């Protein structure tokens, strides 16, 4: 492989940027699976709702309001989704859960298509995020004119901040302790007086809220069209599996891995289309529980 | 459904409990009362329905309570969720101890103190269970069986417990450890906590208990004093194999 340092750096950044969106979607997906035991195939649709809300607010009221409004709105939508529909399927087989969340995803996707049309809606990036970054200014070892879109850099930073915040919430707060414990033995927490289902509902809302954050910053990158939800859902779901169902660290690791793999195989079109499945198969053969899957978590 | 006790309710009282695991009818019309501060040994063969009865009282989702009333200290528990029953004073120490893995010993205790009302403080727990204090920063699932049982008991005491349900506290423990747990349960008894103890080791449970109930295929077949069971050889042979 003949690759210059410049090309390598660009692929690395693209991998990080791809991984950032995957991680933000997969984080919510794995949180919801780890707590409620539900594979939420409607999670891609939450991202879809987020980008349409974000683009609508951004293009009329400005980016600032989109940033302030969309994540909390997604929190509310997530909680409503959990209470209104998904909650009724906790005691049903996984196949029923998959059917209902998948069905919901399609309904939401068609609804958004009906409202906004099938075409991509241009997402105007705010002026402070527009333009390019001269990489040479930051990485002096790079030679010549190497640039990367500023907005994509911002997306990576947002993902890092969001992931850190979620880890801090889970590992440094009492709420996080209860959630982590609830992931291991929800019934025992109830026997200790904890209304764990209410907290899990909050987690569902948080997962949706992260999809909201992803939508606000990812919309301009992934584009705003009805297929985007499903396009992201498949890799995100595989990332959850590769990382280990319910493992947040695993989702982050796997998200970056898949992002990098897709970025670095971009010149080889055949390999690029199958690389994610190839990695999934190899990792699951070597580690059936995924990279960081814990023993006894939903087995 | 009207839920009024027909006679002056005892401190704890359950009436005509019927509970199912799916189609399987595991608690069949169980009724008994416990005066405040007394200890009941709930005995019977493997699979008789002892754990199911305790889980029903703790208002676990499974087995599902289909009918019957549960009263504790004047409160009706039969329509409660498990966390509400726990807040009303039920503490179930499960048969496999159910120590939360992936968090520390101390965090297991903290998890018992998320919801009011609380029982013993951590300091008080550590003064009674110095081993737990030594290991407070240790991952809880790395404790030995005996230490896990202590932690499970301590976790119950960390709550304001009015009815303690002990499911096989001696199970799988070496004799010296059993003695240690026994001493702790004697202390619990002195504290006057109303308790139901389920144990394969019937003699050990009867030593501790005031009353005995024997259950077989989900039905109560004997109610009396602990001494009566110790004295009645046919009963012991038929239902307890001792
Ligand atoms: N989770 C379960 N699902 C279905 N049946 C169960 C379950 N747990 C126990 N049982 C059945 O319920 C009956 C009573 O079991 P259990 O209450 O555990 O007995 P014991 O504690 O007296 O040994 C047994 O026939 C057992 O097979
Ligand atoms: Mg049992």
Q: Biggest chain pair contact, residues each?
A: A-B, 19 and 25 residues
Which runs of chain A of at least 5 residues are low in confidence (pLDDT < 50)? none
Query: Main sheet of chain A?
Result: 2 strands, antiparallel
The fourth-level CATH homologous superfamily of chain B is P-loop containing nucleotide triphosphate hydrolases
Cofactors, ions and other ligands in the entry: adenosine-5'-diphosphate, magnesium ion
Would you identify the regions of chain B where 5 or more consecutive residues have pLDDT less than 50?
Answer: none
Helix coverage percent of residues of chain A?
A: over 70%
Taken as a percent bin, the fraction of beta residues of chain A is under 5%
Supply the number of helical segments of chain A: 12
Looking at how many chains there are and whether they match, the oligomeric state comes to heterodimer
The total strand number of chain B stands at 10
**Biggest sheet of chain B, open or closed, and with what strands and sense?**
6 strands, mixed
Biggest sheet, spatial arrangement of strands of chain A:
1-2
Count of the separate structural domains of chain B: 1
Describe the structure.
The complex is a heterodimer of chains A (299) and B (242). Chain A is an all-alpha fold and 299 residues long. Chain A is built from twelve helices and two strands; from the N terminus they run ααααβαβααααααα. In chain A, strands 1-2 form a two-stranded antiparallel ribbon. With 242 residues, chain B is an alpha/beta fold. Chain B is 34% helix and 26% strand. Chain B is built from ten helices and ten strands. In chain B, the strands form two sheets. A six-stranded mixed β-sheet of chain B has the order 6-7-8-3-9-10, with helices on both faces. A four-stranded antiparallel β-sheet of chain B has the order 2-1-4-5, covered by helices on one side. At the A-B interface, α7 and α8 of A face α2 and α3 of B.
């Amino acid at each position: 492989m003949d690759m210059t340092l410049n090309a390598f750096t660009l692929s690395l950044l693209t991998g990080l940027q791809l991984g950032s969106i995957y991680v933000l979607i997969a984080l919510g997906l794995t949180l919801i699976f780890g707590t409620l035991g539900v594979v939420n195939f409607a999670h891609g649709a939450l991202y879809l709702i987020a980008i349409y809300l974000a683009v609508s607010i951004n293009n009329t009221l400005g980016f600032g309001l989109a940033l302030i409004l969309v994540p909390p709105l997604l929190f509310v939508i997530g909680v409503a989704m959990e209470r209104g529909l998904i909650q009724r399927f906790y005691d049903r087989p996984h196949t029923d859960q998959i059917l209902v969340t998948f069905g919901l995803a399609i309904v939401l996707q068609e609804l958004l298509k009906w409202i906004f049309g099938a075409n991509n809606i241009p997402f105007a990036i705010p002026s402070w995020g527009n333009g390019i970054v001269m990489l040479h200014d930051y990485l002096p070892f790079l030679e010549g004119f190497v640039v990367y879109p500023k907005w994509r850099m911002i997306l990576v930073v947002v993902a890092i901040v969001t992931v850190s915040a979620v880890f801090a919430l889970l590992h440094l707060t009492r709420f996080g302790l209860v959630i982590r414990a609830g992931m291991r033995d929800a019934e025992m927490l109830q026997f200790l007086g904890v209304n764990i289902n209410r907290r899990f509902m909050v987690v569902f809302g948080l997962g949706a809220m992260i999809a909201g954050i992803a939508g606000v910053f990812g919309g301009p990158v992934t584009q705003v069209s009805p297929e985007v939800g499903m396009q992201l859902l498949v890799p995100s779901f595989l990332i959850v599996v590769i990382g280990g169902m319910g493992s947040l660290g695993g989702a982050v690791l796997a998200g970056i891995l898949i992002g990098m793999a897709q970025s670095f195989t971009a010149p080889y079109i055949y390999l690029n289309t199958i690389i994610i499945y190839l990695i999934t198969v190899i990792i699951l053969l070597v580690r059936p529980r995924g990279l960081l899957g814990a023993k006894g978590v939903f087995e | 459904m009207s839920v009024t006790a027909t006679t002056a309710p005892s401190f704890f009282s359950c009436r005509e409990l019927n509970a199912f695991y799916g189609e399987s009818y595991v608690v069949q019309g169980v009724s008994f009362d416990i005066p405040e501060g007394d200890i009941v040994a709930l005995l019977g063969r493997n699979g008789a329905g002892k754990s199911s009865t305790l889980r029903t009282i703790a208002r676990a989702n499974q087995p599902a309570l289909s009918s019957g009333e549960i009263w504790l200290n004047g409160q009706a528990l039969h329509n409660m969720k498990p966390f509400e029953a726990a807040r009303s004073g039920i503490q179930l120490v499960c048969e496999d101890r159910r120590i939360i893995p992936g968090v520390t010993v101390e965090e297991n205790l903290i998890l018992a103190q998320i919801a009011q009302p609380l029982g013993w403080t951590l300091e008080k727990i550590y003064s009674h269970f110095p081993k737990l204090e030594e290991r407070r920063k240790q991952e809880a699932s790395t404790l030995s069986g005996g230490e896990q049982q202590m932690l499970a008991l301590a976790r119950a005491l960390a709550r304001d417990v009015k009815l303690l349900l002990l499911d096989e506290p001696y199970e799988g423990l070496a004799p010296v450890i059993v003695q240690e747990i026994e001493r702790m349960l004697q202390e619990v008894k002195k504290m006057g906590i109303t308790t139901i103890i389920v144990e394969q080791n019937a003699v050990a449970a009867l030593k501790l208990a005031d009353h005995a109930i024997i259950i077989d295929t989900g039905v109560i077949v004997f109610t009396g004093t602990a001494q009566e069971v110790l004295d009645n050889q046919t009963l012991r042979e038929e239902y307890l194999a001792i």
